[in-house]
Design goal:
The protein has six helices and ten strands; from the N terminus they run E-H-H-E-E-E-E-H-E-H-H-E-E-E-E-H. It has two domains: 1-145, Hotdog Thioesterase (Thiol Ester Dehydrase, Chain A), CATH 3.10.129; 147-261, Hotdog Thioesterase (Thiol Ester Dehydrase, Chain A), CATH 3.10.129. The longest helix is centred in the N-terminal third of the chain and has 18 residues, at 30-47. A ten-stranded antiparallel β-sheet has the order 1-3-4-5-2-7-10-9-8-6, sandwiched between helices. It is α+β, with helices and mostly antiparallel strands. The two termini are 26 Å apart. The radius of gyration is 18 Å and the shape is globular.
Length: 261
């Protein structure tokens, strides 16, 4: 563990890419990086005394609201990935974490900036307790939650409909944030975007608007735009927009630096 990672604002661990986490290319699925990031965030919080019981007693929950994930190299099945998270910003009701994933040879495989919002037991946004900035470090305070604006879904977009399956739910009884990446890539593959899904480097910009509950009927739309792909997920019954995303193949270190700003 590095000296920087031993500071309260940072935490490190290693993950072995398991057989069931790898795709036909024998590499970690993109959604696996988001799963590592969220697990590492909980490990960090728990190590500082903020475990799930602490949140449950106070009726508080962290939810992912937005993320920017840049994939630079494949993480091979059976190999270890060094994962590090750092709280880089905190403001009112949300905190931003910066995650890095490094291969055994020292090569950077991926980075992710994740915006987490804190909600109360009524599902409303609530102010982050002062003890958090004391323990994690306040970081940058002038940040704002990332937004993703998409054009209207074109008539020629590839569309598909499905329901949230039981195995896609997390302990909060809604679809886990990593599952949305699986849905996104499934739609792009069906729409002819396989090259973009496999491109290295590639960047995903993600905005989570509303949660998808068990059995929810969903409509997905994917279409090529501006050199990449756009994706929109809506509730089939209410029409509410749940998730927006962009996949931008070829976006690498320059996009990663942009995400740090």
């Amino acid at each position: 563990m590095t000296a920087e990672a031993s500071a309260p604002s940072s935490h490190e661990t290693a993950y072995r890419v398991r057989f069931d986490e790898a795709g036909p290319d024998a590499g970690l699925r993109t959604s696996g990086l988001m799963r590592f990031a969220q697990d590492l965030a909980w490990l960090h919080s728990t190590a500082l005394g903020f475990g799930r019981e602490w949140y449950a007693e106070r009726g508080l929950t962290w939810l992912v609201r937005a993320a920017s994930l840049t994939v630079l190299a494949a993480a091979p099945m059976g190999r270890d990935v060094a994962a590090r998270t750092k709280v880089v910003g905190m403001r009112r009701v949300f905190a931003r974490r910066r995650g890095t994933f490094t291969l055994e040879d020292g090569k950077l495989a991926a980075t992710v900036n994740t915006d987490w919002v804190l909600i109360d037991d009524r599902g409303s946004l609530t102010r982050i307790p002062a003890v958090f900035s004391e323990m994690f470090g306040a970081g940058e305070s002038a940040i704002t939650i990332r937004r993703l604006a998409l054009a209207e879904t074109p008539a020629g977009a590839h569309r598909r409909s499905f329901r949230v399956r039981p195995q896609e739910l997390d302990p909060y009884a809604h679809a886990n944030n990593a599952v949305y990446l699986d849905w996104l890539e499934e739609s792009l593959l069906a729409a002819g975007g396989g090259d973009a899904v496999a491109a290295l480097p590639r960047r995903f910009r993600l905005e989570y608007a509303l949660a998808a509950d068990a059995g929810a009927p969903l409509d997905a739309a994917a279409w090529p735009a501006d050199g990449g792909w756009s994706f929109r997920l809506t509730h089939a019954t209410t029409g509410a927009e749940l998730f927006r995303a962009r996949l931008e193949p070829g976006s690498g270190e320059s996009a990663d630096r942009e995400d740090d700003e």
